Amino acid sequence: MDRKKWQKVLGITVLAIGVLWMICDGMKGVEKTEDWHGLNSAVELVKNGHLAGYNDKTVGEAVDGFLGNAEWESGRNQSDETMVNVQGSIMYMDWKADCLIQFKVDEEAAVLKIYAFEIDGEGQDQMVIAVLVKEMFK
What we know:
alpha+beta; six-stranded antiparallel β-sheet; 4 helices
């Protein structure tokens, strides 16, 4: 097996393992409610916010440099938690892939964290997420 095929097989394997780590609510549990009072401010909170350890760029700046054609939306999951999704495209292991980054937002405390990270619909494990976030904030 040549190197490129091996890299692709390895990438698919990593993606498959990531499914085991995927959080159940993921994208399926979020109801899009763009007009609900406060949810648009959740998008702004995420765009203008910082992830712990990455104070040089806002999340919005990092996303703009990482995702192509980024689209933002907010909603509430089945547990009535505020979620913000950003979708776009990335180059992943030499191929174009769809990417979803989902943030869980506590608006009262102005705290956000990455809740899910999917590539081509496959949830990523914590190790892959850490590598992708580091790349995003480069």
